[in-house]
Specification:
The two termini are 36 Å apart. The model has no long low-confidence stretch (mean pLDDT 85). Helix 1 crosses helix 3. By secondary structure, this protein is mostly helical. It has helices at 9-17, 22-34, 36-54, 66-100, 105-134.
Length: 143
């Protein structure tokens, strides 16, 4: 993209940011004196740099409405309650049917061991995520 092979676009960016050593800065300045194309590129990079600096990220554009507050305080907890209660009732009924069925005891033990293993793994993953959530630096980031 540049006219000279000795000056790369990264060098021009570092020149604009003041990150070059005195020797590198002198080399870039001497090339800039000789090359119109290099000066044009430096001007383009400088304009892009200023445009990026002038960009502003808007604060929270969306205000929290009444429905958002109702959803957060009532709907979500109610949904979690019904989900957990339904899953618990279904699990208890399934365990009762499983325990009273006429299946070989070894099959019951093997199936029970698999279910207990899956539940233990699930509980450990949930516990780890809960512990990490307390120290997660990105938990309050909003999109």
């Amino acid at each position: 993209m540049t006219v000279t092979d000795s000056i790369r676009p990264e060098d021009l960016m570092r020149y604009l940011d003041g990150e070059l050593s005195p020797e590198e800065r002198a080399r870039v300045e001497s090339e800039l004196e000789r090359s119109t194309e290099l000066r044009r590129e430096l001007t383009i990079y400088g304009a892009m740099r200023e445009e990026l600096r002038s960009l502003s990220v808007p604060e929270s554009v969306r205000e929290i409405s009444i429905w958002d507050r109702v959803n957060r305080r009532l709907t979500r907890p109610a949904g979690w309650f019904f989900l957990i209660a339904g899953a618990l009732a279904l699990s208890i009924y399934g365990a009762y049917v499983f325990a009273t069925s006429a299946v070989d005891p070894w099959e019951k033990l093997a199936t029970g061991a698999i279910v207990i293993g899956i539940l233990l793994l699930l509980a450990s993953v949930i516990w780890e995520r809960y512990r990490e959530w307390g120290s997660d630096p990105y938990k309050d980031v909003q999109r």
